[in-house]
Amino acid sequence: MKKLLVGIFAAILVFSLAACGNANDVKDNVNSKVATAKEKLQTKAMDFYTGLVAKVNEKDADYDAYMADITSDAPSKGEALDELAKKASASAEKVSETLANVKVPDLGKRTDEFKASIQELSDAFAEKAAAVKANPGDTKVAEKADEAIQKASDKLSEALRKIGLAGSNIVNDITG
């Protein structure tokens, strides 16, 4: 009789351990899928961000040249300054248009945050274009427009952080 009871308890113990092992396997599998989904979302967000930086850098070279000139020790004057400002304004306008036409991928519950920050960037570059055109050589006007770009950059950085990435500063990433 003792052998029968020991056998039954042993069988129950084996089945219990097997059930626990399967539960842990299922839990590990679910955790793995969640981690994989998060990694995919982070990869998609990072790819989007780096593509965004590349698109802006394709269009802002004339603005960067203008800013380098007007903040140099010997800034351009007269017609040379007007020509630089004209090109810089057109450059900033192209950036604004490019940003306005960017398609934000599905980034889950953060998609709207990305869209809003990109729209703010677009609006800030349009403001920058108008400011440079109206006030060639005025670094104060350019700095005011840059404040709006920085504010939008901060929002984009926060959206990146909420997805689990390091918050990047697009102003630093697109400059010169």
Structure commentary:
With 176 residues, the chain is mainly alpha-helical. It has six helices and no strands. Helix 1 packs antiparallel against helix 3 and helix 4 runs antiparallel to helix 5. The N and C termini lie far apart (86 Å). The mean pLDDT is 82.
Record keyword descriptors for this entry:
single chain; 176 residues; mainly alpha; 6 helices; 0% strand
Number of strands: 0
Mean pLDDT: 82
Helix content: over 70%
| Through-space gap between termini | 86 Å
Question: Can you describe this structure in just a few lines?
Answer:
The chain is mainly α and 176 residues long. The protein contains six helices and no strands.
Topology:
Elements: H1 2-59, H2 61-70, H3 78-100, H4 111-134, H5 139-163, H6 170-174
Helix pairs in contact: 1-3, 2-3, 3-4, 4-5
